Amino acid sequence: MLQAGDKIPDIDTIDQDGNVVNLSKLENKKLIIYFYPKDSTPGCTAEACNFRDEQHLLKERGYQIFGVSADSIASHQKFIEKHTLSFTLLSDENKDLIKAFGVWGSKKFMGKSYEGILRTTFITDEKGKITHVIDKVKTNDSTQQILDLLDQ
Hints:
Elements lengths: L12 E3 L4 E2 L8 E6 L6 H18 L3 E7 L3 H11 L4 E4 L4 H6 L2 E6 L2 E6 L2 E5 L5 E5 L7 H10 L1
Parallel strand pairs: 3-4, 4-5
Antiparallel strand pairs: 1-2, 1-5, 3-8, 6-7, 8-9
Helix pairs in contact: 1-4
């Protein structure tokens, strides 16, 4: 998994509208990049809606939010429409970005092990350098968790 001090990987991916996005090329932008397992699941919906409702607090500090999962563009579009999300979701069906950030790994659910996206949030500075990594995300309060970390 990438850590504080690492640079954002130079990988193209696609947003919910089919536009190519390369996070490493977003110069002069501070980013919140959050990886989540699947659109429209309870924890992922809670996290997305928390960002939707509180994103003004992050924007005031100059941050732009990007959610990343392996879901399709069509799935992202439905998720955005259903929950009126107003930030970018990236579709990484090949898991290139997910694996480059190191958030694909072994998980357990109901006693069974499987491979999946490890819910993780990365915070970057304007130069594309990771400043903070949150690997124990509070889905219902992720924005406040980020703000608390930034205020330390």
